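User: Quick sanity check before I run a bigger batch. Here is a single chain. Can you write out its predicted 3D structure?
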Amino acid sequence: MCHLKSLDISYNQVQGEQIGNYRNLSGCFGHDSETLNLDYARISGHIPDWLGMVESLKHLYHSHNQLNGTIPESLGQLFDLETLDLSRNSLEGGIFEVHFASLSKLKMLSTSSNGLTIKIKSNWVPPFQLEYIEMESSKFGTQFPQWLQTQLKATTLFFSNTSISRTLPKWIKDMNLYELDLSHNQIKETLPRFLPT
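Assistant: Done. Predicted structure follows.
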């Protein structure tokens, strides 16, 4: 067990199990382990700080559970992480730049359907180039996030119900998006021209 490269307990019925009870994994998960999949496992509790010490992690799937509390800043030190899916839980609090500090390889980010507030400065330059971005029902404030302009490889952007109410920036039409969901916002004034004239 102490040489696991992947652990998948998704789609199980461990209802009420506290994710902190898996602390013993930190002894086995750390050198060569790359994937931890707890999707739909009915896990509850806080995301433990020790996950940020599993330096070899590339894929972290924790969606559709009953996780609560805040996202630990230690996840921002997972420099090999490519996939981070924390969607559809009961997480709360803020997301700051420190949560992404060393995530230069991140390609997929999903934090949808939690109680999260995005508190990232407008002049922030991310260390990553995301391809898939899903942050539905996150609180962004009224302005479309400026840092998205740096995401030149993004093909999917789900930003429904994110409290955006100001005019969309003109540069959004220059992104190489295949999917764009801005539904259930309060976007005003003229939309950028997405279709050729």
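The chain has a mean pLDDT of 88.

User: Great, the batch can go ahead then.
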